[in-house]
Amino acid sequence: MTRAERESEGADGPGPLPAQLSAEIPARIPGTLPAEPQAKSRENLVHSLHDEVLARLREFIVEGNLAPGARVPERLLCERFGISRTPLREALKVLASEGLIDLLPNRGARVRRIGEGEIIELFDVMGGLEALAGRLACERITEAAYAEIERLHHEMYGHYLRRDLHGYFACNQAIHDRIVQAAENGPLSATYASFAGRLRRARYSANLDANRDRWGEAMREHEEILDALRRRAGSELSDILFRHLRNKRRAAADREAAAPVPGEPAVDSV
Amino acid sequence: MTRAERESEGADGPGPLPAQLSAEIPARIPGTLPAEPQAKSRENLVHSLHDEVLARLREFIVEGNLAPGARVPERLLCERFGISRTPLREALKVLASEGLIDLLPNRGARVRRIGEGEIIELFDVMGGLEALAGRLACERITEAAYAEIERLHHEMYGHYLRRDLHGYFACNQAIHDRIVQAAENGPLSATYASFAGRLRRARYSANLDANRDRWGEAMREHEEILDALRRRAGSELSDILFRHLRNKRRAAADREAAAPVPGEPAVDSV
DNA sequence: TCAGCTCGAAATGAATGCAAACCTGTGGGA
DNA sequence: TCCCACAGGTTTGCATTCATTTCGAGCTGA
């Protein structure tokens, strides 16, 4: 298939796919930072085929459309995306370097299986990154940006009072994202987004429904976070954020132990 | 060239190269963590050609054998490594995702030019990662590992007294690496190594010869670091390490302002 | 002299080809 | 029945080829 032929064709490939692959591939992750994993801001606005495939494949895997440990079917994905193996394989190398898949020599790519131990490690790194973001945010954040976080905080509190889990989650994630944004550090944002993706792929569950105590605790921690940020107490905020992530990790681990159902979709985030 | 032909041939390609490329490509970076950028520990012991090329090319760029902003000559590197363009281009995509190079659509790869602002950002991320490593190290470090760091610290102090810059640097780097190792967090180690490479590529200079004050200050900070680590005071150590990196960044910036000679090799690290 | 244009060489992006490695199912022997 | 060899198709890794774009030398005309 030549480039001209591909461009004149429709977006979707024609062939049917096995059930596992037939899930829709969304165009963008809604709830995360808009930052691309690496700096491609100025000149790389033209999406070369490679970038397009890379983004779509990353989403496909992060969203859990392939089971952990499952083979990544090169051929099928080529047909799915309507491309040849070359750009797809380039994307696979990049995803492997991001830790989303493993490349076994001569035996293809497999979706990385994330063990309990590694989830703990990833949580700790997220904690460190958020701690850093909080520290930097205290140095740089504008009054307006702080006010927006404060608004989100109160909105989140409202959801908490009404026991609206979904709204609570959305505000919670928005707050953490705003803090990272307020740090105004490109490499930090990119690294944060990358680790968030890896962790999200693990489908760890910190479902607050099953853990009402944790919900209240998390809400109190967020009070502390807002307070430290208001006082621009970087070092203190750094500590609180790390502890916050630690507790989140613990809640996730408890939940996992209580309901060890692998492959079951679960709600994220405290 | 077929695979059999390449394997029966010698390691070095035959052709002459322009002066800029004729520098030797070392096999490994001596002073950094042994960790590979991503988890390939168990099964990927067989180095597929791609991995080999990726590692060598990364070293080639990190070591500064290509000027910032310079074109990455695909053709020449292919001849140099004795491979075709496919695996080389795969490696370039990965390096781009690591932030070492920029890929301009239809105009090839260029060595990323790191501006002053980005160096500051990278330093801050390094500070956050070291802060995290220190915090985790306080939780996990063994007496033996602590004793080794203490030994390195005293050895470093000896170098400081004798004004032996080279020995001081080596111990300094070893201490920071040991702290990261003591954190026992694979993703953290990998991320740390990656950022260390990016920063090293910038060839920032924090030459202590030109800044004797900073040398003494750094030594005092290291006293604090050791003290906090001995007391397993994670939060405190975290703060000290971040400040330590901040001061290191400041010294580097001062030095850069005092002697703005781009392309001049300079001594790293405090 | 110099700005603008044309055309050809070279480089890039992607597709295709090909040898080697792997997986699978089949059959022979213990 | 169970274990192992092995032949076939399938997949992978890399080389090669092809289409497209960019870059630059040389020409034209003012």
Percent of residues in helices of chain A: 55-70%
Termini separation of chain A:
47 Å
* CATH topology term of the largest domain in chain A: Four Helix Bundle (Hemerythrin (Met), subunit A)
Report the count of strand segments of chain A: 2
Radius of gyration of chain A, CA atoms, in whole angstroms = 20 Å
Order of helices and strands of chain A: HHHHEEHHHHHH
Shape of chain A: globular
- Counting DSSP H or I runs of 4 or more residues, the number of helices of chain A is 10
**CATH architecture identity of the largest domain in chain A:** Up-down Bundle
Largest chain interface and its two residue counts?
A-B, 50 and 50 residues
Category from helices, strands and their pairing of chain A: mainly alpha
Number of folding domains of chain A?
A: 2
Strand order of the largest sheet of chain A: 1-2
Outline the low-pLDDT stretches of chain A: 9-45, 260-269
CATH class category name of the largest domain in chain A: Mainly Alpha
Mean pLDDT of chain A: 82
Q: Report the portion of residues of chain A in β strands.
A: under 5%
CATH superfamily of the largest domain in chain A: GntR ligand-binding domain-like
